Amino acid sequence: NNSRVLYDCNTKERYFKITDPKKITERDKRWPQLRYDYFFGIDKQYLWKHEFLKHGSCGSSRYKQQAYFDLAMKLKDRFDLLRTLRGRGINPGSTYDLDDIERAIMTVSIKVPSLKC
């Protein structure tokens, strides 16, 4: 949807803490909370809460919280960014031109990515 910026859409949306151990493991594998100690991150779920309220709230009329995260994880699995970059010779720990990174990403996307540091 290019008609609006998709963040902070539904300020009345609530986040429901994930309690299912399988869902926690799946989510942590793909969406780790690196800012926090593992157990603290799993307990508080600050990152997941932030991401859902900031971005997931934009589709909350169509995708409830669990569906939002399931879809995000499927997209991450389908479009493995590190594999895409490595396939174009771009590897972590080195310096590259922004144009090279954008071209690599565009091999699996339609639009020029919006990259920010």
UniProtKB/TrEMBL annotation:
Cellular component aspect of the GO annotation: extracellular region
Any one of the GO BP annotations: RNA catabolic process
Domain of life: Eukaryota
Pfam families reported for this sequence: Ribonuclease_T2
Keywords from the named record: Endonuclease, Hydrolase, Lyase, Nuclease
Span of the signal peptide: none
GO terms for MF: ribonuclease T2 activity; RNA binding
Family listed: Belongs to the RNase T2 family.
Record-given protein name: S3-RNase
